[in-house]
Amino acid sequence: MEAVFPLVAGLNLDFNALPQQLINGIIVGSIYALIALGYTMVYGVLRLINFAHGEVFMLGAYTALLTSYTMGYSPEAVKKIFQDGGEVSSNPLNLVILILISMAVCAVIGALIEFFAYRPMRGESRTAALITAIGVSLFLQYAGQLFLPANPPPSISDKVNPYSGSFSHVFKPAQIAEDGNVISTAMEVSITHGRLTMLVTVIVLMSLLTYLVMYTKAGRAMRAASHDFDSASLMGINVNRVVTFTFMLGSALAGAGAMMLATFEGTALQPFFGVLPGVKAFVAAVLGGIGNIPGAVLGGIVMGLAETFVTWLGFSQYKDAVAFVILIIVLLLKPGGLLGSSKVEKV
Amino acid sequence: MKNGLLQIAALSLALVSMSFIGGCKDPNAAGTDKPGTSGSGSGSAASGDTIKIGMVASLNGEQRPWGVDCEAGGLLAVKLFNDAGGVNGKKVELVIEDSNSKPEEGKSAASKLAGDGVIAIIGEVASGISQQMKLVALDAKIPMVAVGATNPDVTKDGNGLISRVCYTDDLQGPVMAKFAIDKGLKRVAVMTDKKLPYSTGLSATFVKRYKELGGQIVAEESYQAGETNFGGQLTRVKATNPDGIFMSGYFNEVGPMSRQIRQAGMNNVVLMGGDGWDSADLISNGGDAIVGGFFCNHYNDKEDRPEVQKFLTDFKANNNGNLPGTTMGALGYDATALVLDALKRLGAANKEFTAENLAAEIMNTENFPAISGSITLKGTQGDPDKRALIVEVKKDGFQFYKSYEPAEVMAR
Fold first, then answer.
1. Is residue B350 included in any domain, yes or no?
2. Are both B276 and B157 inside the same structural domain?
3. Res B381: pLDDT
4. Which of A78, A212, B117, B299 is 20 to 30 A from A256 (CA-CA)?
């Protein structure tokens, strides 16, 4: 206990930075939420943790990358235009095309994974299906190493993103001394147009998802199947179609998240790129209550905020550990998650 | 009960046989269909007409660009050596094993080479991997020449066996610190990749020297390789009003990070780094954000020293007209050529080609004209006194900016 007090006393808490860190957290969390939705929906219907979901995310990013190349934004093409003295620019239509293609390709990949790897395991034990999921995940990672460009890790050209500005508002300007030392920090918030677009897109996608799940027949079938798989089948619902639909939906969302991350954040892609976000999104889904769609969103936001909060405190070295600490706490205290129920199923 | 026992027996048999399959790595898996290598032989490496030396390189994984270049450089050195007649009628064979960009696999790659009977091991580019390989080299009493590992610990307690052809972070950090001071930067923030021994080591030497020279370290933040969003850390950095940011990690993260630095509104901050930035794709990863940045490197392919130009000509001739993408091509060549030169000296003195003799001869190297600068190992702990280059990142490549000799950097 003694060790905690010096730790707290030595903290340099910059409360002026809190609003900005809050925004940072929500942005990071929104992507986790998108991916977590895929985990949670599949679990809801099949009671299976789709460990390969992180790899679908990775493939979505690569799809966006390769599509951007065919659109003329490959490093060689961009370099050539620069050497010829030209300018490279983009427009929002390119972004729409990229996201639609990423979502479509991921949806197909998700459906294929379900059909070839999970459907044959439908009647088997939960453990067997889980191991299959891990196997698919490893398979995609290492197959990616063989076939995907990772030497060196490519990233989408920053020219693809047409938004270069940012919105910022200064509540209180920083006071800088003459020698450059900071007397008091600024209280300002700024969000780049790219990140704002990302946030808006996430909200739009989630609204669409909610509509789909709550107000359409297909959504009702999904909810029925997740409530009771066998009874739904007995009621005449084509559960195979429901499962495929669920996978496609979740994977499409992951693809959208991947495209946005790759385009707006410019992350360098390599075949294991989906592992860390995948694990964090999985924790987010568990945190919110696995199987619970609003839970996944809540879990994602909380994960993003927790990570950023730890960074704000000054412990950025530990921010990835936060995910796992949260997982342990949730499993110990409330395994059903924040919004999930911990009711025991009586047979 | 019987069923249960049977199941357990079957399972354990399966597990045991799986571990055998997993343990035996296919000897032909890594690059044996390249010129200069052939199937693994047995017995002492000096027997017959070939002398075997080994190389560990990251042919897969995040460090593949460096590993592939290192391999190409090494193979070129061996080819030129053999074409010139070898040594005392013997040719040299370079056996290459893949470390997969991972320290544990680098260690097993080195073990495999030691078991194969090589009398020297070349590698690696990364400090973390080299530190693991060192354990094998010390154990097997085989000399090891590191290619790009800059962490000072790699050659510590080396028993006269461990050396390198590159400078160490004991130089690289101070070089960048002096550069920062010379450029008039008074408030520098540091971003470290906490998972990389290279990055944590380099940041430490930079911070220490920069403070000694009178600079102010305003923020120290860390991240992990594979991260995508640095918003949290950069918000903290921005609040401290830095005029420079030192990013000691690899180009994979430095690219996106520099984009996010500019997006956060820090447009006039000077970006600096170490040789981990060296990659053909730093510019496409970082875009306009990284242009105008500076990093410390081993050599620049536009230098007009004759060794540099000859190397580039030879490399192009043997690699389909391609130049190495990174400086690891030159360093891989330098490390291999140094070992070959030591072999030649052994031959000239009519000494036997054993690991022990080779180790001693390598440590006797004086004024070896390497592409990356003259190398002298005699009288050192295994660390040559190399000069360091600062290059500036431009839209179309890296441009030589300034070079620093060790003496002027360490002076007060």
1. yes
2. no
3. 87
4. A78
